[in-house]
Design brief:
Elements (H helix, E strand, L loop, with lengths): L5 H23 L1 H9 L6 H27 L7 E7 L1 H9 L4 H5 L3 E6 L5 E6 L3 E2 L6 E2 L11 H11 L1
Parallel strand pairs: 1-2
Antiparallel strand pairs: 1-3, 4-5
Bound molecules: zinc ion.
């Protein structure tokens, strides 16, 4: 078993924390618990951790694929990564689709189901860069217009 690097361990801990929070929430609110139960397995903390461990394995593969890109004087955050393969291979990635860009420290991750060998492609994102988090996006927020939607929300919360 390989040791996790500290940032991966921190990311894992964050997800564990969220999974626990979900479990605690279901214990408090009975009606909502039933609703969440029907949405398994996504809300199942153990299953989610298993697939998250698989995602951390993907993270290492993607980091290796990013090496030539970074050697060419790009930042990891300048990348858009496309992972293609059969749905069986990509299952864990699809389950954590929303978290992949942050976990891989890139701007976007596209997961494409197609038959055949798994391929990982790294390209420049080429959209618009957020002035706050430095990630690239297809579109930025409308106000302020130099940051992404997520940063615009964070700024609104800070100022509100
Ligand atoms: Zn941003």
């Amino acid at each position: 078993m390989e040791e996790l690097d500290p940032s991966a361990a921190a990311a894992a801990a964050a997800v564990v924390g969220r999974a626990r929070a979900t479990a605690a929430g279901t214990a408090v609110d009975g009606d909502r618990a039933g609703e969440l139960d029907r949405r398994r397995p996504y809300q199942d903390a153990d299953g989610r951790l298993t697939s998250f461990a698989t995602v951390l394995g993907w993270r290492e593969r993607v980091t290796r694929e990013l090496e030539p890109f970074r050697a060419a004087k790009h930042r990891s955050l300048d990348a858009r990564v496309t992972i293609a393969g059969s749905s069986g291979e990509l299952h864990a990635l699809l389950e954590h689709a929303e978290e992949l860009a942050d976990l891989f420290i890139v701007s976007a991750v596209d997961v494409v189901e197609q038959p055949g060998e798994v391929t990982i492609e790294v390209a420049e994102h080429g959209g618009h860069r957020c002035g706050r988090c430095w990630k690239w996006f297809e579109v930025l927020a409308t106000a302020p217009d130099d940051v992404c939607e997520r940063c615009a929300d964070a700024l609104t919360a800070l100022n509100g």
